[in-house]
Amino acid sequence: EFGELGTSDLKVVLLGKQGFAVRLSVHKNVLVEYSSFFADRLLEQPPGLPGLEIDDCEDVEIYVETVGLMYCKDLQQRLIKQNVSRVLRILKVISRIM
Length: 98
Fold this sequence. Notes:
- The chain is an alpha+beta fold.
- The chain has helices at residues 28-34, 36-44, 60-69, 75-80, 84-97, and strands spanning 10-16, 21-26, 51-57.
- It has a three-stranded mixed β-sheet with strand order 2-1-3.
């Protein structure tokens, strides 16, 4: 499950342009499977570091939601409940990290 501390094996820190940070507990295999951006960043990272830092996130809230969507079994059903503006913001982040 997304954000589950007990089974996660990676901490991701999202640094927003607004000056705040959000820490996520995620599963490395999920990020690598669904995102070439995260897969590449993890390959570039020196071994032994416990986390990954992503800086200059324009919309941290949408980054968090987009990472959470990687865990979603029925993505279409989840997105259909969102308004168009939010879906467009999600698609903007997806285009950067997928």
